[in-house]
Target: histone deacetylase
Amino acid sequence: LLLYSQRLTSMISEVFSNLNDSVGLSSCCNCQIKSSFAKVYMTGNNITWICFICFLLCFLCAEGVVYDSLMLKHQCMCGNYANHPEHAGRIQSIWSRLQETGLLNKCERIRGRKASLEEIQLVHSEHHSLLYGTSPLNRQKLDPRKLLGNVSQKLFSLLPCGGLGVDSDTVWNELHSAGAARMAVGCVIELAARNGFAVVRPPGHHAEESTAMGFCFFNSIAITAKYLRDKLNIGKILIVDLDVHHGNGTQQAFYADPSILYVSLHRYDEGNFFPGSGAPNEVGSGPGEGYNINIAWTGGLDPPMGDVEYLTAFRTVIMPAANEFDPEIVLVSAGFDAVEGHDPPLGGYKVTAKCFGHLTKQLLKLADGRVVLALEGGHDLTAICDASEACINALLGNEVKHKSQQVERMSKVW
Ligand SMILES: [Zn+2]
Ligand SMILES: [Zn+2]
Model:
């Protein structure tokens, strides 16, 4: 409540400070009524107007979206996108899509921030957080005893493309990667104060306590879950991982933890698909036994999994387990590499983008509709833009249009 009232105060003062900018009567972009209480609302180069009442309603009810251009700077020093499927164009094109479709105007833009090292250490070791969370500039301010010296150099290797990285996927830019990785975490934490969608990179679900891998440095969703539980006293959190790869880092973080139910749907192929973990019999340990669910698809691409399999898994396993768990909030590792358009080595499945909207709608039935999605993997630009659009439409309560025939049939049965 305090957070809301602080934001409300700052927004109201912002509205009034902008009143002088309202020249004549402008139509509100939401209710279309001509109003002198209009505010310039900038999204990129677009200027739109929103009336005071819609603005307040929007603030009280709207879904949040969070994005920061700092995350574009994380890129391989070779500068060649073709070598690296996880590149800045991914979030840039999603952001443009949200602007072009007008969805951005229907959401509240949440301001991102860099996560603190303390927040990162909710999940990661101190060494890991210093190694990937500091740039040469802020490293100088650290306690000399914590300085990493040669250790940091040894962990990065020279890649065939000429850049630097932990591996050829997980590239490192000494000046910008730390800032971008911390921004991705901070954006998800900020967004979790309400519902919404985080347009973030680098992704996080492969990052383990002390290991960066598979494009990931810090596990944004896992850190946010710990933050919500430890700092905001949220007792039960459901994490649903829709990425085609198993979220080994998230599973590791909560394997013995009964307060966080982790559910992942992923291509497994008896451990032959990256990262190799996520077997169905990995169910948690100690008090966490039963609180780790792996829907581990197997059988390769013959045939590839699609909407029917994903919807069936939701209907028969995920939703019943989630209802019984009765979470207070749902966090979604929204990887879109299961969407059609991804080559076999990085996906190969045929789930439609619209199906992801439908799955989001199912999750909104839980936790009084408290659902926060954060982008993970997916590199086919059309696929990830379509899927992001479908998920945000679902969050906004818009009908997910042009459902695929499969989804249509399945949702009728449901
Ligand atoms: Zn490179
Ligand atoms: Zn993935």
In short: The chain has 14 helices and 15 strands. The domain at 64-413 is CATH 3.40.800.20 (Arginase; Chain A).
